[in-house]
Amino acid sequence: MAHDNGSQPSTAEERTPLLPHDKLKKTGGNSILPLLLLSGFLISLTFGITQVPILYVFRVMTCDAYYEKHTPDPSAIDRCAKHEIEAGASRAFAVLSASTSIFGLVNLMVAGWTIKRLGVKRALIIQVFWPAVRVFFQIIGIMKGSNTGIAIVQASQILTVFGGPNGYVLCLNSFVADVVGHEARTGALGRLQGLMFIGAAIGFLIGGVVGDAFGVIEPFHMAFISFLVCCVYVALALPATAPPETRNDTPSRQVLGISRFFGPLRIFTPQKWVLPDGRTTTQFGALTLGIGVFLGILATGYITILLQQYATSRFHFGTKDNGYLIFIYFSLRGAFLSLLFPRIIARGRKWLKSRVAKQQDKSQNDESQDNEPLISDQPIAPNEVEVMDPMENEEPPNPAPQDEQETFAFDLFYARFSVLLDAILTGAAMFVTQGWQMYIVALILPFSAGTGAASKGTILQMLPSSDRTDALSGITLVENIARLSTTAVFGLVFSALANVGKSHLVFICNASVALLAFIILCLSRFPPQGSKRAEHV
């Protein structure tokens, strides 16, 4: 990788702590961390309770609306097992997901603004309270049923602006980052990520079992009460936090607040580099990495909903069956990201680093290089790697001390082939012919996780240290946009295929997007060694 010696140091503003975390650490960061981990587990569990039943709810309400104008077949085993109903339910859910995509992005800005104005604890309470209000209106919509109920449930998503899953994850990440020191921060965020996955998995299971045993509306009652309990827990268990010190900003400075949300995307613009031989070239490594990550998350982010929709449509899975299915997927994914993935990354980095060291020893006196290398030996400090948002994707713990050099070349390699493995496994799912085989799919798909996490280490090497804060923000923003968009995009695809009785082809569509992501990631590479940025020459 090219070394950029002209990088400017980070501004004071970039290094200003969000909260007075020194005071929090003095009160005992180690004692606060378990409380935060438990908060992440409980809140994720609560959000997961309604995720499985809501798919079944839309199917039931669409079915009711359909038979308001049609006569049911008395000999049908499942009167809702019609292509028109499945397609209609998928369209209705796609509208729900599209609104969640828009409101979820706004929720990130609202949550960030609330943290700065009110402090992270109050912001977290707000992010948990408003989902309780949203679930309350969803209960009303389910009781109404038919098209009216669908409209009420869809309209309730506007409350996601004030509180939702994106906002609470941001609050918890900020809280953990403030109470934990630099050395342990990445590991703490990893533990939080793992517990969130496990909590969500248990929530999926509880929602499916309760909905199947006591009625599809009961998981929503349970979630409503659980959200309120979580609010009380956060208010009583977590320490009070003060908002960060504010200054009298000028109007022009305040306008920059909104532009900063999309501002980090500038890191993906092509950049000019001067090669060792004096030639100037345009490098597209960051751009192709961003596009590849977007497509990769777009493909993998839909898997959980796709498994449920396909299992319900093809094999008539109920809420309990889908609950078990998603519990398997999420629990294994959480275990993989928390336990196996960090070890794979650590050993892969060590292996590649030793390999590169041997190659550099052999070619130490060679000044001409014919091929452009794909790997880097630029050191990255652990405290720079740790400034991140581990939403759905988390960087593995970095065990190296701060002054130890470490290569992240393996991250790019892992990002490429995890997407390729996901494309293969997802495409193979179209050959599923029996219901029990869906559980096999849920067992093997989690082992292709980690694309977004691996991309973070890569983007950090492609940019100077002065841009690394924006690098992490930019790649996280790309992941969030892709994750929030995937259900809307593939929901419409599933609806169109289900309408013609070819719903199994959605796995091919999903795998094709993942394969395209792999191809684009293969085009991503570092500038040639010895190159310098044009603006620093």
UniProtKB/TrEMBL annotation:
Chief subcellular location: membrane
Tagged with keyword Transmembrane: yes
Comp. bias regions, Basic and acidic residues: 12-22
Keywords linked to the UniProt accession: Membrane, Transmembrane, Transmembrane helix
Transmembrane segments: 32-58, 92-115, 195-214, 220-238, 284-305, 325-345, 413-432, 438-460, 481-498, 504-523
Source organism, top-level taxon: Eukaryota
Membrane topology: Multi-pass membrane protein
UniProt-annotated location(s): Membrane
Keyword Manganese included in the entry's annotation: no
Disordered, as annotated region: 1-23, 357-381
Cellular component terms (Gene Ontology): membrane
Biased composition (Polar residues): 1-11
An example Gene Ontology molecular-function term: transmembrane transporter activity
Name of this protein: MFS general substrate transporter
Highest classification ranks of the organism: Eukaryota, Fungi, Dikarya, Ascomycota, Pezizomycotina
